[in-house]
Every structure is written in C-alpha cells, then in structure tokens.
Amino acid sequence: MQPDLSTWNEELIHNLFDKDNASRILSIPISGSSLEDTLVWKIEGSGTYSVRSWYRDQWKAPEAGIVKINFDASFLSKDRIAITAVIARNSTGSILGAETYLYENIEDPFVAEARACERALLFAKAMGFRRLAVEGDALSVIKSIKKRGNDFSVIRSITHNIYVMGLSFDRISYHFTPRAANGVAYALTLEGRRSCYCGVWIHGLPSSVVSIARKEGLQLHLDGSLNPQVWLMMNKASVAFMASDVLTDTLLFSSYLASGY
C-alpha cells in the first residue's frame, strides 16, 4: 500500500503476483479512514488463530496402500479456459506422479473444477493406480459426485461420468479439503499456466511445488502419521532447500488465499 494516498502500490503488486491474482488484490477496497490494521485468521469464523484450526487444514496422508490424488483448476474467465492439475502421493507423502491439462470453452469455475476431478481419475487409470482417495477444495463437485450426479447442478453430466468411472477401481473415495490443504495442486495449476505445459510432468516438478510437498511431508511426522526414521530419511536432505524457498512459498500461499478459485 501507499499509506499517504490510501491506494495499492500497483507496481509492487504486479511484481509479486501473477496477473490474475494481482487484479483480484487491486480490486479490494482500501479504507480511507485511519483505522488500525487488524490481523484476521481467515480459516476460522471467529477470525482468531488456533493451533487446532491450523492442524485441521493441513494435508493428510492416505492410509498405506492408498494413493491420494489432489486436484485443482485455475479458471481464466476472459479466455474461457481452465488449467487443471492433479498430483498423486502415497502414505509417506512421496509424489508418485503429476499432470496439468488445458481445457477450452469452459463456462465457469464449477465446470473447471469438475473437469479437474475427471482428469484425476483418467490420470489414475493411466498410471495403473487401483485404490484411490480423490481430494479437492471444490465442495460442490464432491457433493455432486456423492449424489452420483443425480442433481440439478450444471456439472451433473460430468460428475455422473466421474462416478461411473470410479466404479472401475478397486477402491475409491471422494473428499473435500480446505483450500489451505490443497496448496500443492494449486501451485501446479499456476506452473502449468505459466509454462503452458499440458501433460504428465515426467522431467521433474517445479521447485515451488516440491517445496510445498516437502513441508507437508514434515507435517506427517508432527501428527504421527509417519514413522520418525522414515520421515528423517525423506526430509534430512530437504531442510536447506526449504529454508531458501521460504519467501517464494509465502508469496505463493498469499496468492493462493487471495484467489477466488
């Protein structure tokens, strides 16, 4: 902000965030009065931070033998396109594979999220995964799938197809997760949009995505989901890498939480 003018510092905002999120931030009105700034914890209705709320909104590893696939979508309304992302991890938090995909002629963000979930199952089938936990931050999509697409939503034809595809797996479940716990998938949508890459990421994931995944791997140890010796072997080499990426991740999550999709 520029305190003297009560306006956003547009040059700084555009340097820190991508065009879409910068536009969203700049659209937030700034009070012209001299009210003091107040810290608000967005996740809680009370606006108060608590350790319990922070813990609840962390990525959780699946049980052994299950592959968890997180999905997300970035919707560009002006161009009517969506970049979807899916990323698969196992019970130790190890990344098993990831994909970004471009859809054209997308009507709204609900359709974009539904297509992202659909890509999650297509990706799982191509990778040979048989036991899945599919997770995303689009509550309307998850609810529609659990209704087997028998509702009156605009995405019912897609979610019905997702339900039918799911029957071909040995085990599958669908879960809603808060957007704060879906950061890896969201980061991958941004990388897919930035690089214009569509397909399976077979040559390694961007450092921004890997760094967030590693931090979530650290959380597995804190909540007791991962054997400490296994956790130590996975993360010992990543501590220095993560420390150097603190600023990058802070900006990425700020962009994530400012996003409407």
UniProtKB/TrEMBL annotation:
It holds the Pfam family RVT_3. Gene3D superfamilies: Ribonuclease H-like superfamily/Ribonuclease H. GO terms for molecular function: nucleic acid binding; RNA-directed DNA polymerase activity; RNA-DNA hybrid ribonuclease activity. The keyword Nucleotidyltransferase applies. Residues 70-188 form the RNase H type-1 domain. This is Reverse transcriptase. InterPro entries: RNase_H-like_dom_plant, RNase_H-like_EbsB-rel, RNaseH-like_sf, RNaseH_domain, RNaseH_sf. It comes from Gossypium australe. The keyword Phosphoprotein does not apply. Keywords: Nucleotidyltransferase, RNA-directed DNA polymerase, Transferase.
